[in-house]
Specification:
Blueprint: H1 2-28, E1 36-40, E2 47-52, E3 57-60, H2 64-91, H3 95-98, H4 103-110, H5 114-124, H6 127-147, H7 152-157, H8 166-198, H9 200-206, E4 249-255, E5 266-274, E6 282-290, E7 293-301, E8 308-312, E9 316-322, E10 328-332, E11 339-347, E12 353-361, E13 366-369, E14 372-378, H10 399-405, E15 414-420, E16 425-430, E17 444-445, E18 462-464, E19 470-473, H11 481-487, H12 496-505, H13 513-520, H14 529-539, H15 547-554, H16 565-591, H17 604-613, H18 626-645, H19 654-657, H20 674-677, E20 694-695, E21 698-700, E22 703-706, E23 715-717, H21 735-739, E24 751-759
Parallel strand pairs: 1-24, 3-6, 10-17
Antiparallel strand pairs: 2-3, 2-24, 4-5, 4-19, 5-21, 5-22, 6-7, 7-8, 8-9, 9-15, 10-14, 11-12, 13-14, 15-16, 16-18, 20-21, 22-23
Helix pairs in contact: 2-6, 2-8, 5-8, 8-9, 15-16, 16-18
Length: 763
């Protein structure tokens, strides 16, 4: 019997090893070749695609068209599935890969009809830009063809790898629009619902300006000076969790040459996005000739597009944060409004078609809000929303050049921060801004709709070389109080991050790359100090029962540090107080298909007024008084943490609660592959409302620091590797340095691989 068991165990082990060998064998044949020679009819002269030890792609070409081909070739080899997801996401075509489970998301995206818009815009682009997209697409398809075998994602889904087309590159840009600006029109919808249910006075109360304002000109918006609106009589209501919309944003700042040893301007930029495997950005350096000058552009590209999005050409360095200007209006329709229907056909894996009926109007697609029809007028629907003008930054030699380009670029509106080797620094909104001059957070009547929506705004504020030599943005209001009336609030960040960055910049009179790297990792919890004081005050009312929690709060370190238990308690306490106070409003909105999710970031001033004034109408009816409600919020914190992480307080350390978990899209569906596909987990460091932004799968998608003309110490840290193939040596390259806050070099290091592509007609 013992021998039988022994042989069974041995057989299972052998079968397991054989299965593993098969999996690795199948994966290995889809690894791209990194060395060799080839020919193409799509290049005019020799193109070289080299890679260093991080897998950074170094493209060498004789002209920009061939450089686009080379970058496309590298993207096609390393990131095609990611690119496919981006174009399908924007077009509403994920159901063809994942079946009916993706229908809800696809219908949400088909509302915008971005496939049709992309195809139409391509036809309107200048011939030079069309040629660039054609060359890039050819590179993608030939890079993919070189691999020879479908990647494992396609083997698992059984889906077909469809060729890349020029319009797909525009869809990738649209995918960023959806990521960065959906919150703008969803926030407006929530405010329309709140005004409909509670009146416009409630909207003013909930969206009042905060104490955290960091506009570049120092201006502040007038504080809210009205009484707190009465809240309608509440009924007993189960406590609801109000999720916060992830703040798709970023930090950037700059100093002029008067504050650096080299005399060059210095830039810092870290873009905050959801993190997955592979990470969204792709390291690249383009080397090509233009107008008899050699250009070298180094930074990060967005796979699916032929541009360096953030980087430097050694004359200037540039970076972005999401602008959050008001780029959308809901137009209230009537029975007399002209509308019509179109049918969008959504393909499924079995070849069947799901039809989605979409109502349209002359202002945009139509959605019901509180059972009333509204049309969405959004800058993303305009013909000027997307173009290839971002590439013009590659040839800019001064800050003035870059600021001049800003008004012409078709991308989601961003805060462009730019410095040059001569010591200049500047800021300006870059991207598509509707020309209409009266933005509104509430509904617009048809009679007030402006035809200026069809025009991209050319006149925009800018700041160059401020007297004190410092510039900063962090998704809060950057423009003056006067300009705020013109450009509107599209969901600005509260301003705590920007204020902290600004204050840190004034603590020093001289800066180098190490100083900027330190500031990018600043996790001091300034914003939560008042909440820390409030919680201590509440717990000290029963200090004996709360002794262990009080001890952790007294030793909380005042930061979102990995070992801090006190930080976890304060952070969770704020959330539970907001949940408790606004549960009735959340319930009413949910009954109308809405949520406070997109308004939650605005609630800080209002919640403090409610805590301090304690109006009876806002008291949750399950509590006798506000003190009982605030005490119960902490009980909720303890209960929830115990359920999630156990009753031992050591398991409540912020590094555990906010652990960095960067996963491949397939890892949750196939847990057996998670070890192979995911990045290693790392203790949480940072949070919202501080420069070091980090959530469980959210945070700085790259960290960039550069002084043009002095790039030997420039930094580009990314939380993941270049390749999307799990067996590639570049799959996780750079991740360990990122989590350790090491200064990963921007410039390519020793080149290890090289592919040479010759023109097909060259002997």
């Amino acid at each position: 019997m013992f021998k039988i068991i022994k042989w069974l165990v041995l057989a299972i082990v052998i079968l397991g090893l054989a299965a593993t060998a098969v999996i690795y064998g199948v994966l290995s044949i889809s690894l791209p070749a990194l060395d060799g020679n080839g020919r193409s009819t799509h290049v005019s002269q020799t193109v070289k695609i080299s890679r260093d030890q991080l897998g950074q792609a170094v493209i060498s070409a004789e002209n920009r068209l061939d450089a686009a081909y080379g970058l496309g070739f590298a993207h096609g080899q390393d990131r095609f599935f990611q690119m496919d997801l981006l174009r399908r996401n924007a077009a509403g075509e994920l159901s063809e890969l994942f079946g009916k489970a993706a229908l809800g998301l696809d219908k949400k995206m088909r509302f915008h009809q971005l496939r049709k818009r992309s195809a139409a815009i391509v036809e309107q682009l200048p011939e030079a830009d069309q040629a660039l997209l054609t060359s890039y697409a050819a590179g993608v398809n030939e890079g993919l063809a070189q691999v020879g075998f479908s990647s494992f994602e396609y083997l698992l889904t059984g889906a077909e790898q469809k060729p890349w087309r020029s319009e797909d590159s525009l869809l990738v840009i649209y995918s960023m629009y959806l990521d960065l600006q959906t919150a703008t029109f969803e926030r407006d919808q929530a405010l329309i619902q709140i005004a409909d249910i509670y009146g416009p006075e409630m909207v003013s109360f909930l969206t009042q300006p905060s104490q955290y304002q960091a506009a570049l000109d120092g201006s502040t918006l007038a504080p809210y000076n009205l009484t707190i609106p009465e809240f309608p009589k509440q009924t007993l209501q189960a406590l609801l969790r109000i999720d916060a919309n992830q703040e798709r944003g970023s930090n950037n700042w700059a100093v002029t040459g008067q504050l650096t040893t080299t005399g060059a301007g210095m830039l810092s930029d870290d873009m905050h996005l959801s993190m997955a495997v592979p990470v969204i950005w792709y390291r690249a350096q383009l080397n090509y000739a233009m107008s008899e000058k050699v250009s070298q552009v180094t930074g990060v590209s967005l796979p699916g597009t032929p541009a360096i999005v953030v980087g430097t050409n050694n004359n200037i360095a540039w970076g972005f944060t999401n602008g959050y200007l008001d780029t959308a209006d809901w137009v209230a329709l009537t029975d007399n409004s002209k509308t019509w229907q179109e049918v969008e056909q959504i393909a499924l894996p079995d070849g069947s078609i799901e039809e989605y009926k979409l109502t349209l109007s002359e202002y945009g697609p139509v959605r019901e809000i509180n059972s009333k029809p509204y049309a969405l007028s959004w800058v993303g629907h305009q013909p000027y929303a997307v173009d290839m003008n971002l590439l013009k930054l590659e040839q800019a030699t001064t800050v003035d050049d870059a600021l001049l380009i800003a008004s012409e670029v078709g991308i989601p509106v961003q805060n462009l921060m730019v410095v040059d080797s001569q010591g200049n620094a500047g800021w300006k909104n870059m991207g598509a801004i509707p020309g209409r001059i009266k933005p509104s957070e509430l509904a617009v009547q048809e009679n007030d709709y402006s035809t200026l929506w069809q025009h991209n705004e050319q006149q925009r504020p800018e700041v160059k070389n401020p007297v004190d030599g410092r510039l900063w943005t962090g998704n809060s209001r950057v423009v003056s109080a006067l300009d705020d009336q013109r450009f509107g609030n599209g969901g600005y960040a509260l301003g705590a991050r920007s204020s902290q960055i600004r204050d840190r910049l004034y603590e020093k009179q001289h800066f180098n790359e190490a100083n900027f790297n330190q500031l990018q990792h600043d996790n001091q919890a300034r914003f939560l100090q008042p909440w820390h004081s409030l919680l201590l005050q509440q717990l000290n009312k029963n200090s004996t029962a709360n002794q262990q929690y009080i001890k952790e709060l007294e030793n909380w370190q005042g930061c979102a540090c990995a070992t801090s238990i006190g930080y976890t308690l304060v952070r969770r306490y704020r959330d539970e107080v907001i949940n408790s106070v606004f549960t009735a409003m959340q319930a009413n909105l949910q009954a109308q298909g809405g949520s406070l999710k997109y308004v939650k970031r605005d609630l800080e001033p209002a919640i403090w007024q409610l805590i301090e004034q304690q109006p009876d109408s806002w008291l949750n009816p399950q509590f006798a008084d506000w003190d009982a409600q605030l005490t119960d919020s902490f009980s909720q914190v303890v209960s929830n943490l115990s359920k999630e992480f156990g009753s031992n307080l050591k398991g409540w350390q912020w590094g555990t609660v906010n652990e960095l978990v960067i996963e491949h899209p397939f890892a949750q569906q196939i847990p057996q592959l998670s070890k192979l596909l995911n990045m290693p987990t790392a203790p949480g460091f940072g949070d919202s409302y501080m420069p070091a932004v980090q959530g469980r799968s959210f945070g700085a998608s790259q960290r960039f620091i550069a002084q043009p003309g002095h790039l030997e110490n420039a930094i580009m840290a990314i939380p993941g590797g270049q390749s999307g193939h799990p067996l590639s040596p570049f799959y996780r390259a750079g991740f360990d340095d990122y989590v350790a806050a090491k200064p990963t070099p921007l410039l390519p290091q020793t080149l290890m691989h090289e592919i040479t592509i010759l023109p097909a007609n060259e002997l």
